[in-house]
Amino acid sequence: MQDHILIEMMGVQKWYGGYQALRNVDLTVRKGEKIVLCGPSGSGKSTLIRCINRLEAIQQGSIVVNGHRLDDSIKAIDVVRQDVGMVFQSFNLFPHMTVLQNCTLAPIRARRISKTEAEATARKYLERVRIGDQAEKYPAQLSGGQQQRVAIARALCMQPKVMLFDEPTSALDPEMVKEVLDTMIGLANDGMTMICVTHEMGFARQVADRVIFMAEGQIIEEGAPDAFFRNPQHARTRQFLGEILAHH
Amino acid sequence: MVPHFGLPEFGFLLRGLQWTVLLTLVAFAGGCTAGLAIALLRTCGHKRVEWITRIYIGIFQGTPLLLQLFVVYYGLALTGLKLDAFVAVAIGFTVNASAFLGEIWRGAIQAVPRGQTEAAMALGLHYSSRMRDIVMPQAIRISLPATIGYLVQLIKGTSLAAIVGFIELARAGQIVSNQTFQPLLVFGVVGAMYFVLCWPLSWWGSRMEARLALANQR
């Protein structure tokens, strides 16, 4: 059997009014693959992953997630969102709910499982991101790194087939970046399919199966991390890598 | 012989106060219900629906409340619908309150960060759950000071109901004053009654505001 394809984007085009954010993007992601998306700001990498769970609509092309074609129907969007978890740059935890409630709301409402079961699952994932003892606290009582780990646990509680990370460490103080990256590495080692928009090239080297470089809404270059970092093909990629690696 | 301001007159004012409170409660409850619907429609994302609610809000915020009360009381009477004065002013105030509360809550809904809705969508939550579980609890907190402020305005504003012959606190005061020729004393008592009603609410409102400001600083 051929490797199971989880995400297939073909000829995806997206405009914001007159501005084209994605130009003819093709991307195939297989089960278990870890992909790191990088590129300068405004290159469309966040837009790309936000199209996968339909936070953004596309104007042309097709996106198929786990065999379900994403169109405008509420049903298709529903089915896809059940399979796709997302972690945001600014955490977006629900401030009026405890950590535990943050994690159980969607399973109870969208998956219609019992509160007891949802809480058991939530505690399991909170343990896994090493934050089990904070379950009764409110997000504002936690540090940024802890909040982002809660956000990861919250997404995992829906038992997604693929996880999208939209610059998960960009809003964190430097000393908290590692704890979040370690959590993501653990997730990757457990076989989760992941697409990460990030500038953490150390993480890319360690975890990624493929690194994809985007600029001006296009995929410019992609490859295994070794080859990608050692021998980038395009001048645009070399310039970008030069800029960000200079800081590390 | 002219009666002095005594217990019977005070009792009359108290009955007026009762009607003021009742009218406020009915208008506020009705206004909250209809205002919630207006606020949700106003933010639903369908351009045409948003436009219609915008016009609705515009009309009731842009014309005098007095005029609206006239239209309900006398206008509907012309069409053959003869309403009791209380029912007529209750309808007038409810509709007016729905426009103001609708606009206050529209602002509050839009003040909830976009990321909250996005996170809820990414988790597969539907519109009803997104609103009920995520957006409205936060929007209500944000809107609480303004909502309480509006309630205080509403209590004082119910005195306009006197214009169509409804005897609430202000009108009762006028009647007693005309009977006793003791306007200073009578309106002093009336004013004190409004104050006792409004001041705790105002105090509560500004305390909420201070607390919200503090929470936002964190």
UniProtKB/TrEMBL annotation, chain A:
<feature type="domain" description="ABC transporter">
    <location>
        <begin position="7"/>
        <end position="241"/>
    </location>
</feature>
<dbReference type="InterPro" id="IPR027417">
    <property type="entry name" value="P-loop_NTPase"/>
</dbReference>
<dbReference type="InterPro" id="IPR003593">
    <property type="entry name" value="AAA+_ATPase"/>
</dbReference>
<protein>
    <submittedName>
        <fullName>Glutamine ABC transporter ATP-binding protein</fullName>
    </submittedName>
</protein>
<keyword id="KW-0813">Transport</keyword>
<dbReference type="Pfam" id="PF00005">
    <property type="entry name" value="ABC_tran"/>
</dbReference>
<dbReference type="GO" id="GO:0016887">
    <property type="term" value="F:ATP hydrolysis activity"/>
</dbReference>
<dbReference type="InterPro" id="IPR017871">
    <property type="entry name" value="ABC_transporter-like_CS"/>
</dbReference>
<comment type="function">
    <text>Involved in beta-(1--&gt;2)glucan export. Transmembrane domains (TMD) form a pore in the inner membrane and the ATP-binding domain (NBD) is responsible for energy generation.</text>
</comment>
<dbReference type="InterPro" id="IPR030679">
    <property type="entry name" value="ABC_ATPase_HisP-typ"/>
</dbReference>
<dbReference type="InterPro" id="IPR003439">
    <property type="entry name" value="ABC_transporter-like_ATP-bd"/>
</dbReference>
<dbReference type="GO" id="GO:0005524">
    <property type="term" value="F:ATP binding"/>
</dbReference>
<comment type="similarity">
    <text>Belongs to the ABC transporter superfamily.</text>
</comment>
<dbReference type="GO" id="GO:0015424">
    <property type="term" value="F:ABC-type amino acid transporter activity"/>
</dbReference>
<keyword id="KW-0547">Nucleotide-binding</keyword>
<dbReference type="InterPro" id="IPR050086">
    <property type="entry name" value="MetN_ABC_transporter-like"/>
</dbReference>
<keyword id="KW-0067">ATP-binding</keyword>
UniProtKB/TrEMBL annotation, chain B:
<feature type="transmembrane region" description="Helical">
    <location>
        <begin position="20"/>
        <end position="41"/>
    </location>
</feature>
<dbReference type="InterPro" id="IPR010065">
    <property type="entry name" value="AA_ABC_transptr_permease_3TM"/>
</dbReference>
<dbReference type="InterPro" id="IPR000515">
    <property type="entry name" value="MetI-like"/>
</dbReference>
<dbReference type="InterPro" id="IPR035906">
    <property type="entry name" value="MetI-like_sf"/>
</dbReference>
<keyword id="KW-0813">Transport</keyword>
<dbReference type="GO" id="GO:0006865">
    <property type="term" value="P:amino acid transport"/>
</dbReference>
<feature type="transmembrane region" description="Helical">
    <location>
        <begin position="139"/>
        <end position="164"/>
    </location>
</feature>
<dbReference type="GO" id="GO:0022857">
    <property type="term" value="F:transmembrane transporter activity"/>
</dbReference>
<feature type="transmembrane region" description="Helical">
    <location>
        <begin position="53"/>
        <end position="73"/>
    </location>
</feature>
<keyword id="KW-0812">Transmembrane</keyword>
<dbReference type="GO" id="GO:0043190">
    <property type="term" value="C:ATP-binding cassette (ABC) transporter complex"/>
</dbReference>
<keyword id="KW-1003">Cell membrane</keyword>
<keyword id="KW-1133">Transmembrane helix</keyword>
<dbReference type="InterPro" id="IPR043429">
    <property type="entry name" value="ArtM/GltK/GlnP/TcyL/YhdX-like"/>
</dbReference>
<feature type="domain" description="ABC transmembrane type-1">
    <location>
        <begin position="17"/>
        <end position="202"/>
    </location>
</feature>
<dbReference type="Pfam" id="PF00528">
    <property type="entry name" value="BPD_transp_1"/>
</dbReference>
<comment type="similarity">
    <text>Belongs to the binding-protein-dependent transport system permease family. HisMQ subfamily.</text>
</comment>
<feature type="transmembrane region" description="Helical">
    <location>
        <begin position="85"/>
        <end position="105"/>
    </location>
</feature>
<feature type="transmembrane region" description="Helical">
    <location>
        <begin position="184"/>
        <end position="204"/>
    </location>
</feature>
<keyword id="KW-0472">Membrane</keyword>
<protein>
    <submittedName>
        <fullName>Amino acid ABC transporter permease</fullName>
    </submittedName>
</protein>
